Amino acid sequence: MSNMRLPRLLGCPGVRLGQGRLPAPVIEVLAAAAGAVIGITASGIGGMLRRDNDAASAVVRLTAAVEHIAGEVSLMRGEMREDRTELFGRLGKIEQRVATLEARQ
To answer: Residue 32: pLDDT above 50?
Structure first.
């Protein structure tokens, strides 16, 4: 490819389209519009990535919270089981005492 054709392929001023030349201001406006589109696209992608990172960190926090709650519930169930065993033992002793008292009367 010759060096003369390269500026034409890059869209430099003076490129012929159809019958006439595109003026430099038109090319500048087109370049600015293309730059704006690229900028908006890049910021949108950046926002999506940021939201993905925020969502991932939220999932990690929620997972840790659920694991903590599950541990607390498990501990509470163990304590309730111990309390229940103690209460039923006491009730058994009280029933025996009541039965003994009823037998005396």
So the answer is: yes
Residues 6+ apart with CB under 8 A from 95: none
Which tens digit of pLDDT belongs to each residue from 67-89? 999 999 999 999 999 999 999 99
Contact in structure between 21 and 14 (CB atoms under 8 Å): yes
- The whole-angstrom separation of Cα 4 and Cα 18 is 19
User: Which residues face 29 on adjacent strands?
Assistant: none
Give, in order, the Cα–Cα distances in Å from 4 to each of 28, 36, 102: 21, 29, 119
pTM (two decimals): 0.46
Measured between alpha carbons, how far apart are the two ends of the chain, in Å?
121
3-state secondary structure of 21: strand
Backbone angles phi, psi at 13, to 5 degrees: -55, 140
CA distance 29 to 40: 16
